[in-house]
Amino acid sequence: MLVHRLDEDSELRLLQAHHAEALYALADRNRTYLRRWLAWVDSARDVSFISNFIRGRLEALAAGQGYSLSIWHKGSVAGVVGLYDLDQAARKAEIGYWLGQEFEGLGLMTRSVRALLDYAIGEVGLHRIQIKVHVDNLRSRAIPERLGLQLEGLLRNDGTLHGKPCDHALYAITDQEWAIRSSS
């Protein structure tokens, strides 16, 4: 999936090195907003942080361990959606995502995650995909819920956010469940 059109105004593009400046500008503009849920924002002090992230995601792609896509809307980068911790032997992975606040409410992330699920299950052949979301991030939790992923449980002290333990909601879907959901 190098480019995937979501609609006439929006598309997914494989995250590449030349996206670093635009992606850093988006993160920097949304620093206060994103920091509420994402610990990495404090470390993103210049474009080199984003360049290193992109390099790591391209290395993951080359190693068959996942990939990230930039989300574009009307010619501007809006966020990132990616497939992480891809385990080819177990045929499972995790989806992660973030979106600039000015792009919320347009359905971009729901359509982006749906496209990634379609590709990961239909083309890559994964059997299980999960999404972990901070329990209090209701906007982010709405995406897997809207797409029919099942809440499998709450992971207590599953990570840290700004030095404090945080809990995550774990959502997942299997290939059989996605096939049924997609056909209806």
Description:
- With 184 residues, the protein is an alpha+beta fold.
- The protein has a single domain (3-183), classed as 3-Layer(aba) Sandwich (Aminopeptidase).
- The protein contains six helices and eight strands; from the N terminus they run ββαααβββαβαββα.
- It has helices at 20-29, 31-35, 47-62, 108-122, 138-146, 175-183; strands spanning 3-5, 10-14, 67-73, 76-87, 92-99, 128-134, 150-161, 164-174.
- Strands 1-2-3-4-5-6-8-7 form an eight-stranded mixed β-sheet, sandwiched between helices.
Radius of gyration: 16 Å
| Mass-distribution shape | globular
N-C termini distance: 24 Å
What portion of residues belong to β-strands? 35-45%
- The stretches of 5 or more residues where confidence is low (pLDDT under 50) are none
* Strand adjacency order, main sheet: 1-2-3-4-5-6-8-7
Helix content: 25-40%
Oligomer: single chain
Mean pLDDT: 95
Corresponding CATH superfamily: Gcn5-related N-acetyltransferase (GNAT)
The CATH topology is given as Aminopeptidase
Number of domains: 1
The second-level CATH architecture is 3-Layer(aba) Sandwich
Largest sheet: 8 strands, mixed
